[in-house]
Amino acid sequence: MNWIVRYRLRRFLHTSVWVVPLASMVVAILLLQVLRWVDHELAPRVLGFGMEGARNALTMIAASMLSLLVFAFSALLITVQLASAQLTPRIIAGTAISGRPVKYTIGLVTLTYTLSVGVLGRSETVVLQLATALCILLSLLSIAVFLYLMDYWIKALRPVSVMAVVGAEAVQAIEEVYPYQIASAGGPGRATARIHGDAVTRVHEGHSNVLLAADLAGLARLATMVGGFIELVPRVGEYIATGEPLFRLYGGAAQLDAHTLSRSLAFGPERTIQQDPMFAFRILVDIAVKALSPAINDPTTAVLALDQLDRLLRRIGQRQLDTEAILDERDEHGVLFRTPDWDEYVMLATSEIRNFGATSLLVVQRLRQLLTNLIAVLPASRRPPLETQLRLLDAAATRVFPDVEDRIFAGVPTPADSHSRPEAVSIVPPR
Fold this sequence. Notes:
Elements: H1 3-15, H2 19-42, H3 51-86, H4 100-121, H5 129-156, H6 159-177, E1 200-203, E2 209-214, H7 216-226, E3 228-232, E4 239-240, E5 245-251, H8 258-262, E6 265-268, H9 277-291, H10 299-317, E7 325-327, E8 334-336, H11 342-356, H12 361-377, H13 383-400, H14 404-410, H15 415-420
Parallel strand pairs: 3-8
Antiparallel strand pairs: 1-5, 2-4, 2-6, 3-5, 7-8
C-alpha cells in the first residue's frame, strides 16, 4: 500500500460519519447468528421471556432506536448549521461531525436497532431468550450514551472548545512540519542544494484543487534513487489549477513522469491542518473576524481566538522554519519545497484582527499583550515583525481612541508616559 492510498484511507475514515454505523449493522447480523446458535444449543430458560412480552419489547426497542437515529441526525444538522454560521464553516470537518463520540454513539444505536429487528423477525415460534435480553440491555446503554452525546455536543460546539481543538491539531502539525527547535544541536541548518543544469517542468494534469499533503520523505528517496533534485513548486495548502507548474526536476530526476510523482501528493477541495499549520491560523482568524463584524459584535470570542493564536505563535516562534529541503548526506540529491516563514505567520495572525478590532478596547488590549509578551520571550530574530505589528496597533489605537483614559485602559503608550520615563528626566548635579 503506497503513501497516497494510506493517506486517502486515513482521511476517509477520519471524516466519514457513516462508516462506523455501517460496520455496526454488519456486526449485528453476525452477532444475531451467534445468539441464535447459543439459544438453540444451550436453551437458556433462566431469563423467562414469554412470546408476547418479548415481541412487544423488541417492537418498542426497534421503534425507539429508529426514532433516536432520526433525532440524532436532525440535531447534528442543526448544530452544524448554527456552529458554521456563528464561527466558520471550516470547523465542521474537524469537530462535531467527525468526532468519535458522534460516530460511536450512532453506531451503537444502529447496532441495537438492527439486532432488535433481526431478533423480532426470528421470534415467531421460539423466543430467543439471550438475544432478547441483549437487545434490552443495548437499548438502555444506547439511551445513556445518547444523553452523553447531547452533553458532548453542548460543550464541543462552544467557541472556546472548537478553538481549543483547532489549536491542539495545529500544535501536532507544527511539530510534524517543523521538527527542530531554533537552537537545536541535532537540527539541520538551512539546506544548501548543489543544483546543476536546467530544470524540466512537470505541470499539474489533474483537476484544479488544493494541495493537501505531500510525501516529502518519499520524494526525497525517489530523487536520491534517480540521482537528482525534485522541487515541489506549490506549498501545501495552496490552490493549483490544471496546467500550472507542479514540479521542477533537475539532473536524473528529469526522467520521472508526472504520474509517478503525483502518487506522492494528495489533492482536495479544502485545506486541512495535517501538514498545513497556517490553515489553523486562518480558521482562528476567521472566527475572530466574524465575531468582530457589526452583525455579531462579540469581542470576547475574538479574544479567545487571540489566546489560541498566542499559544501557536509561541510554539512556532521557537521552531526552525527555514530548512525547506530534505537532502542526502552530500547535499547532492533530494527534494526542495517551500513553507511559510515567520513574517507570514505574524501577519496572518495579527493584521486582520488589528484592522477589524481596532475599535474594541478589549481586543486592542489583548492583541497588544500578545505582541509584547512574544517580543519578550521569543529569540531576537523573531522580534522585527512583532515590533512592526505593535507599532501599527498603537498608531491605530491612537487614531480610534482620542481620550487618554481609553488608551491607558488598552495599554497604548500616551505622551504622558514618555515624559515619566527615567531617560526623559534631566538631573542637574549640585554645585
